[in-house]
Amino acid sequence: MPRPRKCRQVCHFPQTLAFSPEEQSQEKTPVILAVDEYEAIRLIDKEGLSQEQCGEYMQVARTTVQQIYASARRKLAEVLVEGLPLRIEGGDYQLCDGDNTACGRSGCYKQKLNQLYAKPKGETIMRIAVTYENGEIFQHFGRTEQFKVYDVENGQIVSSEVVGTNGKGHGALAGVLGALGADVLICGGIGGGAQMALAAAGIRLYAGVSGSADQAAEALAAGTLEYDPNARCDHHGEHHGETCGSHGCGNH
Predict the structure, then answer these.
(1) Fewer CB within 10 A of the terminal residue: the chain, N end or C end?
(2) φ, ψ for residue 129 (rounded to 5)?
(3) Long-range contacts of 173-177 (CB under 8 A, 24+ apart)
(4) 168-205 burial string, b = 16+ CB within 10 Å, else e?
(5) pLDDT tens digits for 84-135?
(6) Which residues of 132-157 are buried (b: 16+ CB within 10 A; e: fewer)?
(7) How many CB atoms lie within 10 A of CB 243?
(8) What's the mean pLDDT when you consider all of the chain?
(9) Strands 146-153 and 8-10, sheet pairing
(10) Stated pTM of the model
């Protein structure tokens, strides 16, 4: 029986998940770049790390990095030479949670989020985060500047507070929610990449909700919240993909 492939650690999801040629006369099958392949390209070609350093970040052997990187470069070459669309999804990966013992590096993006946003939570508490603006549910997840965070116990809201995102872009907001210890997100529209990031972080999503943030949180606590599971911010041009959990790489 072959050994299962080790999960590759990824810092966070890419902000853009789909690319298309400017002029495309006919529909072409996109090239699929796995999230762990994207991470190898980001670390080596953008951040300038060696393959050995990349392996330390992704917590795999250098030989594994070589294979991931070579596959990613071949796919990018095919996209550029053949003029094909590109989509980023799937792969064998797990998102970094910023835990010092698991991450093993200082200055980690998730560690910084944990330092900024970590909020203690009791074992019986369900924590709800809502995209927030002036008492209402803000309708564009990727542009939200505030979350209102509610702690629920025995079906009742026991505390709440408004937390600023410090201008984090949509690529970082799932990390902010993870650091806050959110179990649930209520929002309006949300892009496919953000949905993937939330799913990988184990955060349940209630999208397509509008109106009062307080009333929505109360309805969710009572089990009566109405929402639209298909609500999306289509202007991001993002696509759904598989998460690490579907490949057996984590407990999502």
Answers:
(1) N
(2) -110, 140
(3) 173/141, 173/142, 173/144, 174/12, 174/13, 174/198, 174/200, 174/201, 174/203, 175/12, 175/98, 175/109, 175/110, 175/113, 175/201, 176/113, 176/117, 176/147, 177/129, 177/147, 177/201, 177/203
(4) bebbbbbbbbbbbbbbbbbbbbbbbbbbbbbbbbebeb
(5) 999 998 888 877 665 544 455 555 555 656 665 567 787 889 999 999 999 9
(6) beeebbbbbbbebebbbbbbbeeeeb
(7) 25
(8) 81
(9) unpaired
(10) 0.65
The residue whose two tokens read 């937390």 is: 163
pLDDT digits (tens, 9 = 90+) for 172-215: 788 888 888 899 999 998 887 788 778 877 899 999 999 999 99
144: tokens are 């939200």
Contact at 8 Å (CB) between 12 and 234? Answer: no
